[in-house]
Amino acid sequence: MAKANTTSSRRPEPPGKTEAAKAVEKVRKTAAKLAESEKAEPGTCTLCQVCVRMCRDVVGANVLELSKPSADRSTWKIVAAAPENCIGCGACAEVCPTDFIPCETSVSKRVIWNLEFEMLRCSCCGRSHITVAQGDFFAGPSGVPHSYLETCDTCKRNELAATFVRLSLAG
Fold first, then answer.
1. Closest Cα partner for 22 from 58, 55, 49?
2. Is 31 helix (H, G, I), strand (E, B) or coil?
3. What is the pLDDT of residues 31-70, one digit of tens each?
4. Cα gap 31→95, rounded to integer Å
5. FRET label pair with 124: which of 45, 72, 146, 168, CA 20 to 30 Å apart?
6. What is the tally of helices (H) and strands (E) in the chain?
7. 10 Å Cβ neighbour count for 36?
8. Radius of gyration of the chain (CA)
9. Structure pTM?
10. How far is CA 38 from the centre of its chain?
């Protein structure tokens, strides 16, 4: 029986990660192209819908849509069609090529699309890192324990590094 090659330096990607990574990259490339080509004034919406695609295709919250109340394109706008589904992640604001979407984050709250979200503080360092709604959203369908999302990425990396040091000293 052939032995599996366990010395490979590249591990296979977890299922679904590559598709999500591809979707994020596609949305970011589109935003970058639009930022270069649109020549729009900062703070104006160009109706590029990069925010809509980020919310729908990458985050999965499906909050935003392009509203077309008439054939006159000047009346079209991006709206939070399902604000009750917004998790306050700020991904739409991050990819907007013109900084049209205001997103204000403080230690205790984030305000985006005129909605206010309580921030989740890291259980180790106390830094605000995601909204409570964002933690609930990603913990639910993914099966990831909510406790995992209560720790920021920096503290997770520090804990992992400390574990590696302990293991290397023990061996």
1. 58
2. helix
3. 666 666 656 677 788 888 999 999 999 999 999 998 888 7
4. 6
5. 168
6. 6, 6
7. 9
8. 20
9. 0.72
10. 24
The band of 18, judged by pLDDT with boundaries at 50, 70 and 90, is low
CA distance 78 to 101: 10
- Specify the 3-state DSSP secondary structure of 162: helix
Are 122 and 148 in contact by the 8 Å Cβ rule? The answer is no
User: Residue length, the chain?
Assistant: 171
Question: Which bin fits 60, alpha (ψ -120 to 50), beta or left (φ > 0)?
Answer: left
Residue type, 128: S
Which of left, alpha, beta for 3 (phi over 0: left; psi -120 to 50: alpha)? beta
Partnered with residue 67 across adjacent β-strands are: 77
Decide: 90 and 110 in contact? Cβ < 8 Å: yes
E strand intervals along 43-154? 64-67, 77-80, 103-105, 109-112, 115-121, 128-131
pLDDT cut 70: percent of the chain above it = 82
